[in-house]
Amino acid sequence: MELLKAILVDDEPNSLQNLQQKIAEFCPEIKVVATPNKPEEAIFLIRHHKPDIIFLDIEMPRMNGFRMLEELEDIDSEIIFTTAYNHYAIDAIRISAFDYLMKPISVEDLQNAVTRLIERHKGQTHEKLSVLRKSLQENKSQDDRIAIPTGEGMEFINIKNIVRIESSSNYSKLHLLSGQTLLVTRLLKDFEEMLLPYRFYRVHHSHLINLTYIQKYIRGEGGQVVMQNGDVIDVARRKKDEFLKLIAPN
Amino acid sequence: MFQRVVKGFFKYDPQSDRFISLFRFQGKELEKHSNSLNSISEDNNGVLWIASYTGVFAFDPKEKKVVKDYTNNELLGGVEVYGIILDEQQNAWLDTERGVFYIVHATGQIRQLTIPEGLRNNSNGTFYQGSDHSIYCCVEGYVIHFHPSELLNHPDQKIPVHFSDASITDSAYFFHFTSTGQKEMIATPGKNRFSLDFSVMNYDGDNRYYYKLDGVMNGWQRNEDGHLAFYNLSPGKYTLRVKGGDQYGNLTSDEDDVAIIVQPFWWQTNWFKLLCIALVISFTTYLIRRRIIQIRHEAAFKQKIAETEMMALRSQMNPHFIFNSLTSIENFMMQNEKRLASSYLNKFARLIRSILDSSRTELIPLAKDIEALRLYVDLEQLRFNHKFFFDLHIDSVLLNGDYKVPAMIIQPYVENAIVHGLAHSERDNLTLTVSISLRGEYIHYSILDNGVGRQLSSQYNQQNKPRHKSVGLSISEERIHILNRKQNAKGNVTITDLFDENSQPSGTKVDILIKAA
């Protein structure tokens, strides 16, 4: 098997050295071709090497990881973000289905990320990046898309097409506006975190609903919501107050 | 037929031609009533009305005792009564040495029949009962004939009464008259000692004087001579009424009145009292509200201190710094640099410990704070691969003295100098200079970097992440404000942008003044 070419980008030499060492020792599928510690340098090297994988630090002087990617328009490389701590960015990374590693990077996380990447290597970086860019913007709209890993690769779904998501053990079942359903190997909790800024609310342990599609609320202990597609969803008793405040704020 | 004897009553019985003893006075009774009896009259109840040398009394033969006694009466007591006669209404008519009197049966009142009723003079006479219940009275030189019922139905005799004199605080006062004709007497503030005289216009016999101050007295009060004096009446409006009475205690229907107005001092007036009450209430309310606001303020201030301290702690525990430092340390491990790994892990541990400790106390010894600063910069230097030099100058006065400072107050400025000033720059000789000196009562910190300067840095920031907000600096400023308030000091922060000889940005200088503690 041909080795995957990788470029590591980080402003902190120690971090670079650290990751390089870990890859060398624990990821035999990868060959590190360059380790630039300046974003300007990195842009040049990425254009030059056209690597299969970029390990990209988000926090860098002058130009952070996201800004740097904007300079690289036609990019086919897979990207794995590395970050010490970045809350808002992580949501955006997840919604665009990129992988990310938290520093200090654990070897296990690194290996898992590499394995996932090899299995699903579909070259949809371009599309994912457009989702990421959109998601990084401050004003969120349901016109934004979400990247969803499926058996075949990535599916990009308009957030406004999701009526609700139902959990079933380790899977999540997306109910779309078209009436289709989509089974995804992601926890409902992950969707909840990603979609919270897009007017989604988890009314029940196993139900995340798009507030845009509520047709009516039926009073009860917790009550029930009827969605526009006719689905009736229970509202958990302890969620009732918060939910009602959300849909009728007065 | 009754016979009067000195010692008692005997009844003459014509059948047996004998006197039967009815009653004998004993002891005191004997003394009082045994004087020569002049006349006897029997009323409808069989009670004997007896006119005696010392007055009149009534004796009930059935009960064998005196039921009414006028021998001690102020009008009739000790007056010799010559004759007595009872009319149809059982009123007793008396012929006395002082003239004609009558006792009204219904009320028991004693009155004199005098000139107004038609008597020529007050001389005495003898009674005879007429066939039509009228009474004839033979007085010296003439006979009066009258019907008792008509005489007694006569309205009360009017004895005119009016005020004659008045004075306020010893100076004569002339009554005001209101539009309704009401007499009025006005006492100006402080002059509420006044006297009034009133006369009863009856020139016959003794007069009695009665007065009543409405609102103060309930009933009529007798006065000796028609001279009234009032002292210290509280401010207000009163009506003083006066009435006359005859010697028998009969009040006349005529009366005079005067409205007395005692004017209050300005501080006695109602509006002034109301004003005082309103003032007291509003002042109290003001005090209470001020206290509430003060307490709220203090609570808010405390809350703010707590929040700021929390935030300061969080900003010192910058996750980027922590995790990047840990990554650097882990790297030593990966590279098998045991000594360095251990050394930096140690520094990291000491810094974290120092931060955690200082979060508990507000002020810490300067030496301890400087140690934490050194540790922090060391770790940043490690993180940025010794990209910059670090110069630290401290006044020896400060090192030797016992000074306390708020923990890590300059840390955010130092971090800023490194992350936003030096890190962006690629030039040589990047240096961070921190100087700490004593300036009078204040400790002066100077943080100087020769990085890219604020303008370029904020430009980078904008391009990278417009949402990011650095809280560290504002928290430090907030802490300095709080300290200023507590110490009543004027600590401050000044930031200066530096330029080289070509007017190119050449770094940033931050000056911080904090009152030494």
Question: What report would you give on this structure?
Answer:
- The complex is a heterodimer of chains A (250) and B (517).
- Chain A is built from eight helices and 15 strands.
- The radius of gyration of chain A is 20 Å and the shape is elongated.
- Helices cover 33% and strands 30% of the residues of chain A.
- Chain A has two domains: 4-135, Response regulator (Rossmann fold, 3-Layer(aba) Sandwich); 157-247, LytTr DNA-binding domain (OB fold (Dihydrolipoamide Acetyltransferase, E2P)), CATH 2.40.50.1020.
- In chain A, a hairpin with a 2-residue loop joins strand 11 (200-204) and strand 12 (207-210).
- Chain B has 517 residues and is α+β, with helices and mostly antiparallel strands.
- Chain B folds into four domains: 2-153, Methylamine Dehydrogenase, Chain H (7 Propeller), CATH 2.130.10; 161-267, Immunoglobulin-like; 270-297; 298-515, Heat Shock Protein 90 (2-Layer Sandwich), CATH 3.30.565.10.
- In chain B, a hairpin with a 5-residue loop joins strand 8 (81-86) and strand 9 (92-96).
- The mean pLDDT of chain B is 82.
- The chains are: A alpha/beta (250), B alpha+beta (517).
- The A-B interface holds A 11-15, 17-18, 21-22, 38, 59, 61-64, 66-67, 84-85, 88-89, 102-105, 138 and B 319-320, 322-324, 326-328, 330-331, 334-335, 382-385, 419, 423-424, 426, 460, 463-467.
